[in-house]
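Purpose: get a first structural picture of the assembly so the mutagenesis plan has something to point at.
Setup: two entries, given in the order below. No constraints added.
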Amino acid sequence: MSSLWPEHLDNIVDEFKDCFDSMERYELLFEYAKKNPKPLPEEEWTEENQILGCQSRAHVICALNDKGRFILRSGADAQIVQGLMSITAIAVNGLKPIEVSMLTPAYIEEMGLKAALSPNRANGFLNMFNRVIQEAKILSET
Amino acid sequence: MLDIDAIRADFPILGRVLPNGKNLVYFDNAATSQKPQCVIDAMSDFYENYNSNAHRANHTLADEASAALENARSKISNFFGAKPENMIYTSGATEAINLVSYGWAKHNLHNGDVIVITEMEHHADIVPWQELSKEKGVEVRYVPINNETFVLDMEAFEIALEGANLVCVTHTSNVLGIRNPIEDIIRMSKQVDCKVLIDCAQGAPHEKINFETLGADFLAISAHKMAGPTGIGCLLTSKERIQEMGPFMTGGSMIKKVTTDGSTFKDGHAMFETGTPRIAEAIGWGAAVEWLEQFKMEDIHNHVHEIASFAGREMEKIPGIKIFGNPSDKNSSGAVSFLHETIQSQDLALLLDQGGYAVRTGHHCAQPLMDALGVPSTNRASFWIYNTKEEVEGFINHLRYICEKFA
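Result (structure tokens, whole complex):
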């Protein structure tokens, strides 16, 4: 990673920055909700992989592939959380877990979706993000 | 007839521009109302000019603070048709209901006694009774709602009333906006010598609540939904019920004498007002009541009903939107709960927020009602005195746009 987020995320960040207003940004985010590279189907949603403190239902599973690279699988019933998860999965999948553990949600802020990062909001993306970072730390130590 | 422009001018926050440049349109009044300038000023005046603890010292400021606290009690109790000695300051309706549970029911109900509540109660009027049930072995009966009309099943209520000792019912549902037939509930309960608590948190901002006329044993009220500050409310109850009560919280202010052998407690409402009173909040609530007294509560209800029924009618025209409740009913309050069939409620709230529209989303602290409705949450727009038809028109346009773009 050369900056605050992986370089391959730059195009997506720019895509959001080019949006006319917040409604257009959320429209784009809804599109990304459908493009999750590693979706977690509802039948795999369990209490164990549920994100706590999230009023919508959100689930993540973090693992390493056979090359030791990070893989985030995720699913949510709210499209805004699902979209943010998709973009996060695009950001982190294939990185070394140590790299993932150092990631900050700066890309979300840069995309103009700062409201999604407020811990007071009930959508819980921040809880999901923190869970991914925690799991990446654990996986980097194994 | 209300002069809405003049009313709006009393609320500085209604001129707020949000970070995204949109003007605030506040439709979360069932959660808390906004505060007029006179309430803000009254509280600032206390802190700027006579802040002191009440009832505790022989100096000028303490005397002024004590007088203001009791003056507010007189104004507020009078507003609700009660005497000052019938009013116990609490932190809000939740604490008022807990006070009935721990202060009255714990001392007067016994194993096998029955408490009747409803499916549409706020958690504040459910959990205290569940806890009491665990402690004392009382039975808690739940009266269902009709899932098509959303009103309380009064036949089921009549059956549940048999052998009951205490009925606890909300005046108005915070989710459905449905106003319960509390006069009938109180009359039927009294006929079988059953005590009655009415949770007036949602009712008090919308109609004139009169303690004496209603004849309930307990009324729980919150200030912050009726232009007053957060952190204060009251329990209104009779001299007879107060005499049956024991202390809820103990400590300073509520004692007659404390020795190493034990303590004795003050009589009347003083027994239940432990510690430093919420002086600024009481003064603010008094100012809110004075502000409300310039209007007829009936005019406020009619204005809110006109807006809510218009909102309900227009929302139902948007494909995919379902309303929970009956905003067109003349008794309904200003709360309109709704869901879209494919746009998740949290998503919908955030998208409405982008247009400046503040609505509530979630289970509204009424999970048993959500279970009865078969949904995990709803969106809720709730209106009050300062909202306008123009705001609702803008809201409908924005909601329609969201539904067209995001469904």
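Chain B has two domains: 4-30+296-406, 40-292.
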